[in-house]
Amino acid sequence: MRFRQVHLDFHTSELIPGIGEKFDKKQWQDTLRAAAVDSITCFSCCHHGYSYHPTKVGMMHPHLKFNLLREQIDACHEIGVNVPIYLTAGINQYACTKNPAWRAIDRNGVYTSWNDSPLKPGYYKICFNADGYMDYLCDLIEESVTMFPDADGVFLDITSQPQCCCPACIRDMLACGLDPEKENDRKKMSRMTMLKYYRRTFEAVRKHSADMPVFHNAGHVTMGDTEILPYFSHLELESLPTGGWGYDHYPVSAAYTRKLGMEFLGMTGKFHTSWGEFGGFKHPNALRYECSLMLANGSKCSIGDQLHPSGKIDASTYDIIGQAYREVREKEPFCDNVTSPADIAIVAVEPFMSEDEKLAITTTHPEPSTGASRLLLELHQFFDFVTLDMDLSQYKVLILPDVITLNEAEEKILKSFLERGGKLVLSGDSGFDKARKNFLFDIGAEVGEKGPSNPDYLLPDKKFSPEYLTSPMVMYAASRRVKAGKDSCITGDIFDSYFNRTYTHFCSHKHTPNQPEASGFASGVLTGNILYFAHPVFDLYRRFGNTAVKEYFAKAFFALLGGDRKFECSLPSQGRATLQHQQEFNRDILHLLFATPALRGGGTEPAIEVIEELLPCPAVSVKLKTAKKVKSVTVVPENRELAFSQDADTLAFEAPAFTCHQMISIQY
Asked: pTM score, two decimals?
């Protein structure tokens, strides 16, 4: 896969004339070369349902007079730029208009669309199970692959299936013994339909080109859903920070995806907001940071753009993209074929969620996962996301955020992990059985039901308390009742409120204050290789961002790690540190990043996280635990050697001041 990709949207209405008339081969080539782009995804068929080349299956855009996709591919290949081709899958306005029976229908008999009314602009949603549609889609794919055998991949978009109650879905549910009136059965039908979609579309591509790359885009990679991966050649992690994903989203996706053994790229956008925005421009510094973040997490880069209907590539856009991609080009040799040597893993929440809960996070991550990731990122700890069926042997610590209840097989996996010397962090309901009645691990304390106060208050033990805190802090939630043994190391004391806030009794503006005396229950316990927090601390940190909670968590977490703490540095909390290993060169690459996203906008529109200025980060002191003999420590690609020291198991050096992103090669 190429490192410097562009995803070039071209969803173009039939009402716009002059399609592609200002495509200029030389301007196209000069622009891409200057911007250091090495791959650009161009359109075969868009959401409006129009093809950008002659077609016997679909409908060529009525105002296109030549084979635009052929011209784009030829122009790119002449200068060594790859061209994967794009086809819409789950949306096709032209096809739906001609074949209304292909539209998805909800349980109330209403056609599903991107908007809630036929009087609002928006695309119609297709049912992949509708009679004839998959034949049509696969014919479009086969036509494109055979017409453009030199294409460098196929990108299929909007690959999701709603709970459809169209005649075909009802017929097939009944034939399979499913009840269309039951939501779980409708979900089973959706899953069956999606698996059929993956199989047929993958075969449609590969029957003509056995090694053609294929990617299906649903806007999100669901952790634990490995059944569909055989139908993907690689993964593309759509994550536009300003488009609703935010800057927390991508590190979580990447931390899981890099454990799947597949190449992957991150996908951001040049837009100020999100897809479909003409004339929106992100500050160049934002793209510089976002591409650096992708490299730091082991992926290639993709930046979303949208081509003007005239076919003229936008100079301003590629001036901005070029500022990021010329840097990426210099960094590539130190970012290819990398693996994560992290010894901390967060257990993915998705496999433990209900189908309804999963549907609610189609383009986000669960709050406990994001909270756990954010805490470790701000504490500059290297980590991966894993599922319990993965190989866990490289990890010293597993974190189970808030909601991970266990069956017998999962309990056995974790107890075996403990027996091998591993350490567990549990919080809230994590560590309980599926019924949430019995706590499954011996922590020298009884863990019972949730307490009566919501919220309750926490006064950390002095060993785990922020220096500025001597009074109980509100925790914005109820905690499990933990009755610790007399020899237990408790993390703090719970203080109940006088009463919960209701319309019949309340105090002040928000919640009732704490009672003066502690409740007698602990806020958590650190026993041997297990740290348990009685509150759902990860969800709470995601939702409230309480710095006192972060310090409380950090002190308890580092006490659990003890001598197993792999990395320490003096980066500010908004800095990011990752470590990637290049086996081929026997070196680690330490990535240090620093940016300060700010919320802008708001009012009638959602606020957007914006990066504008890139402030310099001062020199960073680094300690890395490694048993391997270090030969050199070098800032790359500048090739500037740094002084370092190494005792039996710890490497120490000072990374120089930097702006945005610094890579340091640790050569063994």
From this structure: 0.95
